[in-house]
Amino acid sequence: MNLIIDVGNSFVKLAVFTEGKIHDKFKVKSKDVLKTLRYIRKEYNGIHDAIISSVGRLRKTDIAYIQKYYNVLVLTSKTNVPFKNLYSTPKTLGIDRIALVSASVEQFPHKNVLIIDAGTCITFDFISHKNEYLGGAISPGIRMRYKALNNFTANLPLLETKAPKNSVGDSTANAMHSGVVQGVLFEIEGAIQKYKLKYPDLTVILTGGDTKFLSKQLKSSIFANSNFLLEGLNYLLQYNLH
Prior knowledge:
The protein has seven helices and eleven strands. It has helices spanning 33-43, 60-69, 95-107, 142-151, 172-198, 211-215, 228-241; strands spanning 2-7, 12-18, 21-28, 49-54, 71-74, 84-85, 113-118, 121-127, 132-140, 203-207, 223-224. The strands form two sheets. It has a six-stranded mixed sheet, with helices on both faces. Strands 3-2-1-4-5 form a five-stranded mixed sheet, sandwiched between helices.
């Protein structure tokens, strides 16, 4: 059994893997991490190895607890990965993106794969059938766009995410929903089509916190998997320990 810890910008995800499959999963605020770790240790005493992927921050007490009870791999730019990294600045490649690409290597070997992670930011990552990571793109996520409209204007409200009923918004709120959500959908569809011009056999993965919301509205053929990053982290843990 493995313990996977993904520290994001907004939440911390913890998952227990058994034989390569998710057995249990938790999504908590940083203040609740230690309580969750204690619960996991009590319920799953067969865990020996753990991996930490952090784009946010864990408290020192959390890290100390994890290191006390588990053999820990902290994912960094120096961690061994199962692909050739052709990013021109490999040390700046986000560890969450490293995990996503690793998941694609395990689950879609020797394929041209575009991974779209729709979370706080929307990231696009491409790995070729030659197992070469070429890079991708980063843009604002859905919530970031709503917040930007509110923060950088005098009169636009902060709205909750909502799928627009029509492309033509008949009120300020509806126009904002149309602009944000349709804009994201057009961006994703456009990116997919651009990649497909060069790689017709493209495999597309959609993951991240907004997977469920977006997958229902996309027209392109995709694999939707909200656990893709966790699966990539588990694979990296296995890859580095065995």
